Amino acid sequence: MPPALSGDALAKLRQPRPYPAVSLVMPTHRREPDNAQDPVRLRNLVSTAEKALQDDPDVPRERRADILDQLRRAVAEIDLAHVEDGLVIHVAQGEHQVWTLARTVPERVVLADTFLTRNLVAAQAAARPTWALAVAADRISLWSGSPERTTEHTGDGFPLTRSLEDPDAERKERIGDLPSTFRDEATRQFFREAHEALNAVLASDPRPLHLLGEPAALTLLEETGPLRAGTTPVQHGGLARGPAAAVHEAVEPARAAREAAASATVVAELDTARGRREFAGGLDEVWQAVKDGRIRLLAVEDQYRTVVREEGGHLEPVESGATDSRDDMVDEIVERALDTGAEVQFVPEDTLAELGRIAAVLRY
Fold this sequence. Notes:
The protein is α+β, with helices and mostly antiparallel strands. The radius of gyration is 24 Å and the shape is globular. It has helices spanning 7-13, 38-55, 61-77, 118-127, 169-174, 185-204, 215-224, 244-276, 283-291, 329-339; strands at 21-27, 86-92, 95-101, 108-112, 130-135, 139-145, 150-153, 160-161, 209-213, 232-235, 279-281, 295-301, 308-311, 314-317, 343-347, 358-362. The model is unreliable at 169-179 (pLDDT under 50). The chain contains ten helices and 16 strands.
């Protein structure tokens, strides 16, 4: 199971390492018969990486041995029967990570003093991750969601659990002093603890948030403290223990509605920017703007990818495999835009058909 692709995880991956930090990237396939080629491609890619390490005179022998061992460990963790559209392996002295992405990637091996992260950054932005907090009186769980699936987040204090058994309940009931579950002080304290844990998660990995629970539970959580702007309540109890598929189904209508509204807002902003001449459209124009740090909002179609070569400071389309071709330029633009503080929005296919599939609102 790959680690969570969070903002904190990406920041750590982008920190410099003792040379070399090795990145292996390859496209993968979810279904037969295409996935039959994946084991062969992976073996070939690993062989290429091993040869690059063996042939590099700048890699000390002990470090080379350590990295080769980390590479073998990483490969042993990969289950090609359960991959998505892309695979990224990072290995360096004393560490390795394996990532599967719901976004295709070009095949390559890179030795540098940092890991290659542009494909991870673009995949995270395209995934449009969300949080869902499922609340009940005895369990509060946090779920990480994307348009494709939802998984429970176990860590950062989650899930929170407690017993509802009150050893003094019989006496309290006799004298009429047994409060309802969501007015009980112990429940309020339980929800305060969950509120604090949630705020800590959102501080390190901010995402749109859905709240799942019966009305009384949602009311109590809202009374516990302020919630992030744009939080969406979903009145659906019984999901604090999942299953993940049920949480995903409960959240999906609200998520889809929010994304549709966001896409409409992006298109409107692009139209306004064209009128103010604060607009770039098409890959080359957007590339020039992102290099200068001028992009405020970048819009990209979900599945847009193209192969280009840089000639005379401009991007020209070329065939895949051509000399000096760059087939993850879209991912590079996304990463650069995020690095300069731009907002990045992925929109459905054909939303930007008349604008070259990629467009931007400029700061100036």
